[in-house]
């Protein structure tokens, strides 16, 4: 995540960021340390944010349910969230993110593994940890890793006008 944070420039100019499913706030704390003007909301289940969250002067911990409502912010950040859920659940989360964004401008930043398209998979790629991680997610959860086209379909189904891949680490 640190290497991605060094190369990704999409956080520049933000004044607020909501980390949806942010756990103890570790990823958001790293973001806030890198971008001193951003105020952050670490949003996760009440039991998660009540149990030893990290402290940072510009970080607020908020408990709630991402399937019901997400706190308002200039941008939403989801790190390793979508791969835990089926498409319908991801669309619900993304619709709630959309509703929490400002009407004039906002974005959702999704940090996930990106699967290659089926026609791009070679034996070397099949041994790649991303493909193996996808199989693991299907076994241990109801989720999966996704291709760029699958992420785009989720974004459009949730009401977003566009989708772009901004970088990879």
Overview in brief:
The protein is of the alpha/beta class.
Structure, explained:
Keywords: Methyltransferase, S-adenosyl-L-methionine, Transferase. InterPro entries: COMT-like, COMT_C, SAM-dependent_MTases_sf. Residues 2-161 form the O-methyltransferase C-terminal domain. This protein is an alpha/beta fold. The chain has one domain (2-113, 146-157): Vaccinia Virus protein VP39 (Rossmann fold, 3-Layer(aba) Sandwich), CATH 3.40.50. It is built from seven helices and seven strands; from the N terminus they run αβαβαββαββααβα. The strands form two sheets. It has a five-stranded parallel sheet, with helices on both faces. Strand 1, helix 2 and strand 2 (39-44) form a beta-alpha-beta unit.
N-C termini distance: 8 Å
Shape: globular
CATH topology: Rossmann fold
Cα radius of gyration in angstroms: 16 Å
Let me know the largest β-sheet: 5 strands, parallel
CATH class: Alpha Beta
Architecture in CATH?
3-Layer(aba) Sandwich
Q: Count the strands?
A: 7
Give the fraction of residues assigned to helices: 25-40%
* Mean pLDDT value: 87
Cross-sheet strand order for the largest sheet: 3-2-1-4-5
What's the tally of helices? Answer: 7
Helix and strand succession? Answer: HEHEHEEHEEHHEH
Tally of distinct domains? 1
Classification by helices and strands: alpha/beta
Q: CATH superfamily assignment?
A: Vaccinia Virus protein VP39
Strand content: 15-25%
Stretches where pLDDT is under 50 for at least 5 consecutive residues are: none
